[in-house]
Amino acid sequence: MTRGKQKLEAQKKNAEKNQKSKGSQIEARAHGLQVVCPICRAQLANQNQLVDHYASKHPKEKPPSNSG
């Protein structure tokens, strides 16, 4: 069992380690999701996923072109 200064240093080290790991997936996901479906506002990672999304969710509509 640690006492005094060792205990405080261990708690500080663990707190820093745990803080760094939190939020990184959320930030990476937000950065990765760049394409948005104009109909239902679903966020997708790329144009290919948008085409697949249109095929399954909006079969009567045509997917937008790559430029826009």
UniProtKB/TrEMBL annotation:
PROSITE patterns found in the cross-reference section: ZINC_FINGER_C2H2_1, ZINC_FINGER_C2H2_2
Gene Ontology cellular component annotations, sorted alphabetically: cytoplasm; nucleus
Compartments, record wording: Cytoplasm; Nucleus
Keywords, alphabetical: Cytoplasm, Metal-binding, Nucleus, Zinc, Zinc-finger
Family annotation (SUPFAM superfamilies): Expressed protein At2g23090/F21P24.15
GO molecular function, one term: zinc ion binding
Gene3D superfamilies assigned: At2g23090-like
UniProt biased composition (Basic and acidic residues): 1-19
Domain of life the protein comes from: Eukaryota
InterPro entries xrefs: MBS1/2-like, ZNF706/At2g23090_sf, Znf_C2H2_type
Disordered: region residues: 1-26
Signal peptide residues on this chain, from the entry's feature table: none
Every C2H2-type domain range: 35-63
PANTHER family listed in its UniProt record: GEO09665P1-RELATED, ZINC FINGER PROTEIN 706
Protein name, UniProt field: C2H2-type domain-containing protein
Source organism: Salvia splendens (Scarlet sage)
